[in-house]
């Protein structure tokens, strides 16, 4: 007789397939969670490493900011000292400027020119006096322009002398003292 299987084989096959599916599904879920956990650990380690580097950079930037502030403070002190040094140099060079002016005026005055007054106001020097001739005054103006210390000579006026002393003419002249920088450059 033919062999007939009366067992519910289709149901058994279906249960086995369902069991295989659940097993595979659980394995896929476990592998997915494991890979996600491993990936999060790797990224977490990378983020922690970057945070450590960022913190190091922040600390180094703070150190450099302090150094920059110190350098700026030193630059301010340096500028202040340089200004003081320039002032001291100017005072040192101007210390005997009056003597140098008088010496230079004595050199530029030709014979035949006499001063009644010599007055200094700042850098301007005003002279009033008497001269034997206008040529002597023009010689004096040329010598002022050739001087290392004096400049911008201008004759304010010449008045012919009174009848008794016609030989002498009254004059007014003004010239300036060169600035400290110009004098220093010429002397060097």
Automatic annotation (TrEMBL):
InterPro entries: Extracell_DNA_Util/SecSys_Comp, PilN. Pfam families: PilN. The chain crosses the membrane at residues 21-43. Residues 64-94 form a coiled coil. Keywords: Coiled coil, Membrane, Transmembrane, Transmembrane helix. This is PilN domain-containing protein. It comes from Pseudoalteromonas qingdaonensis. The lineage of its organism: Bacteria, Pseudomonadati, Pseudomonadota, Gammaproteobacteria, Alteromonadales.
